[in-house]
Amino acid sequence: MNLTLRFQQLAEDLCHYGRILYNNDWSPATSSNYSARLDDQYCALTSSGKHKGELTPADILVVDWQGRAVNPEGISNRGKPSAETLLHTQIYQRYPQAGAVLHTHSRNAVLLSALWPQAELELTGWELQKAIEGQNSHESRLVIPIVDNDQNIPRMAEGLDPLLLPECRAYLIRGHGIYTWGHNLADCFRHLEALDHLCAYQLELIRLGQMESRQP
Ligand SMILES: CSCCC(=O)C(=O)COP(=O)(O)O
Ligand SMILES: [Zn+2]
């Protein structure tokens, strides 16, 4: 498939997932950004400030790994790339197998990231962990880095750099949201859905005062 056809397909797919994520209440008030890899140089990405429940293909543009809007094969590029573009392109460069990146502001991810005191969330004991690539058992350890929020995205990307280990599939930004990636949008969405539930489990344990008995 040539680049233009692939872009058109992925732009439709990103709009489709935008509607699902908005309807799940994970992308309120123009928050969130989504992308899908086009090839080894470019990805299709949401433009900045769009309502994610009402995305159309005109709200999707192409960026290179430096985060610049480009128009290979004359693909039209309207709007401005997401403010968090560099967090997406960092993932594509670090993980050649990553085909899609979804960032949302789900209530469970935002609240847990704000409450969790440590720099990483270590999960074990949950069957749903197996929805995350590389997790084969409820006894596996799922480590999710948590970084402080920063309006300076290049600086945040720099801080994330040493945390993006080969087995990592997601991270939390404190009080802001979650990033996760996968081979394609469907895999990525599965990660996001599982992680949202896992965050909800942890929040409920905190609420019930049960954390100690669940520490790995
Ligand atoms: C209104 S939420 C603040 C920005 C943000 O965190 C986000 O995810 C959306 O930014 P974008 O530039 O991609 O619209
Ligand atoms: Zn955000």
What does this structure look like?
This protein has 216 residues and is an alpha+beta fold. The chain has a single domain, classed as Class II aldolase/adducin N-terminal domain (L-fuculose-1-phosphate Aldolase, 3-Layer(aba) Sandwich). It is built from 6 helices and 9 strands, in the order H-E-E-E-E-H-E-H-E-E-H-E-E-H-H. It has helices at 3-23, 85-94, 107-115, 153-160, 185-208, 211-214; strands at 33-37, 42-46, 60-64, 69-70, 100-104, 120-123, 142-147, 170-173, 177-182. It has a 9-stranded mixed sheet, with helices on both faces. Helix 3 packs across helix 5 (185-208). The structure holds the ligand CSCCC(=O)C(=O)COP(=O)(O)O and zinc ion. The site of zinc ion has 6 residues, from loops.
Summarize model confidence as the mean pLDDT.
Answer: 96
Q: What small molecules does the structure contain?
A: the ligand CSCCC(=O)C(=O)COP(=O)(O)O, zinc ion
The name of the CATH superfamily reads Class II aldolase/adducin N-terminal domain
Gyration radius (Cα, Å) is 17 Å
- Please name the CATH architecture: 3-Layer(aba) Sandwich
| Number of DSSP strand runs | 9
Which regions are unreliable across 5 or more consecutive residues at pLDDT < 50? Answer: none
Overall helicity: 25-40%
Output the helix-strand order.
Answer: HEEEEHEHEEHEEHH
By CATH, the topology is L-fuculose-1-phosphate Aldolase
- Please give the domain count: 1
Distance linking N and C termini: 46 Å
Strand order of the largest sheet: 4-3-2-1-5-9-8-7-6
CATH class term = Alpha Beta
Shape: globular
Number of helices: 6
Strand residues, percent: 15-25%
Largest sheet: 9 strands, mixed
Protein name: Methylthioribulose-1-phosphate dehydratase
GO molecular function, one term: methylthioribulose 1-phosphate dehydratase activity
Enzyme class: lyase
EC number: 4.2.1.109
